[in-house]
Amino acid sequence: MLLNRLKEIVGDKNVSNSASDICCYSSDASRVKGRPEYVVRPHNSEQVSKIVKLASENEMPVVARGAASGLAGGAVPVRGGIVLDMSGMDEIIDIDIDNLQVTIGPGVVHSRLNETLKPHGFFFPPDPGSTAMCTLAGLIANNGSGMRSVKYGTTKRYVLDLEVVLADGSIIRTGSRTLKMASGYDLTSLMVGSEGTLGIITEAVLKIYPLPRARLVILLSFDSAEKAGGAVVRILSSGTIPSACEILDNTTIRALKSYDPSLDIPDAGAILMVEVDGSEGAVSEASEMVKKVCEGIADDIRAAKDEQESDRIWAGRRIVGAAISRLDPLRNRVYVGEDVGVPIKKIPEMIENVHRISDEVGIPIMIYGHIGDGNLHTGMSIDMLSEEEWDKLHRAADLIYRKAIELGGTVSAEHGIGGARSNYMELEHPTSLPVMSLIKKALDPKGILNPGKLGLDK
């Protein structure tokens, strides 16, 4: 019996098929649902290897899961099988400051790593809004990023080496501990963003950076989100690369003020939150350039007084996703159509189209996100008891996705495809999706690793 064999590998207490656990592991933070047959909690790569080998023998799906904070159904067992809860593999194995790297287990929570690195004067730059809960293997599997990706880039820039369990249970290393490598295929980059469809990450070696000596947040107010988008183009064209550049439209501002009246953010059609970092001299120079290029287009420009005020501003930004529910207690936020990315110069056009879609469909849409790298989050909330509102939601999301692709963009800039956006993969990748499918078949011929995701095996 499979249950007994799983217990032999990880112990009785680390395997479950109880109704309560099956329910708890049937979803993530998205609307995608599934139903696993077993929940297994491994504690080392050897156990993961044995579990995957057993699953391969029985041709049973295996889905790796961290904190289930994903918004695309990436960790949902849409075809049943085994859910591997990797959160117990949460050791920070090695901090190697001399070589600018750390080695971590897949279940390490993002904020915990940076809290551990801070006394050493270093940090891991990707900065997701879910920092307090998301696990690093989940961040790697989705190539997540966050608010500071304008300057520091996405997670793939920081992954040097991975230990990965393949579909037959074999264990491989994908890279090296050097800061650059030019030998053979880049298997590390192949695994980053693959969402557990090619292998299961059991260890990662990550590059780290020295903490900047100074940071400054500048708030810029505009009478419209379109003008804010134009200001971003001006800032980046000036040669100034902020560490973060966030937009909050008027709907988002009202939601935040309702959620936390103490937040000192201006009333405006939209605001930009621009952070510059580096040496004190570089921060001063960059902030002056931001102010200069935005004069005449921004209605108001002010800088945070100190680090404490900057921290309060960022704390407010991190609660945006939850704050929208305060605008109408009869409506709930639904994470659909919420993670598009477009080329920088297409930002004003994309914002204009989101407003048009909102009017056309008849559903309120708030705009916020990492506008500095073209990543816009479009937040929608509905009366979840109304079929008409669900229809409006899905129509609006479809129009947003298609417009982003039309403008040369993507349906997911950081949250992943999972099962929520897989229907758009062929539209976005008409020539390369068949190649992705070939890679999937080569590494996972039985199709057991997170099946039903990325549009690879419909």
UniProtKB/TrEMBL annotation:
This is D-lactate dehydrogenase (Cytochrome)/glycolate oxidase. Residues 32-211 form the FAD-binding PCMH-type domain. Gene3D superfamilies: 3.30.465.10, 3.30.70.2190, 3.30.70.2740, Uridine Diphospho-n-acetylenolpyruvylglucosamine Reductase, domain 2, Vanillyl-alcohol Oxidase, Chain A, domain 4. InterPro entries: FAD-bd_oxidored_4_C (IPR004113), FAD-bd_PCMH (IPR016166), FAD-bd_PCMH-like_sf (IPR036318), FAD-bd_PCMH_sub1 (IPR016167), FAD-bd_PCMH_sub2 (IPR016169), FAD-linked_Oxase-like_C (IPR016164), FAD-linked_OxidoTrans_Type4 (IPR051914), Oxid_FAD_bind_N (IPR006094). Belongs to the FAD-binding oxidoreductase/transferase type 4 family. Keywords: FAD, Flavoprotein, Oxidoreductase. Its cofactor is FAD. Pfam families: FAD-oxidase_C, FAD_binding_4. One of its GO terms (molecular function) is oxidoreductase activity.
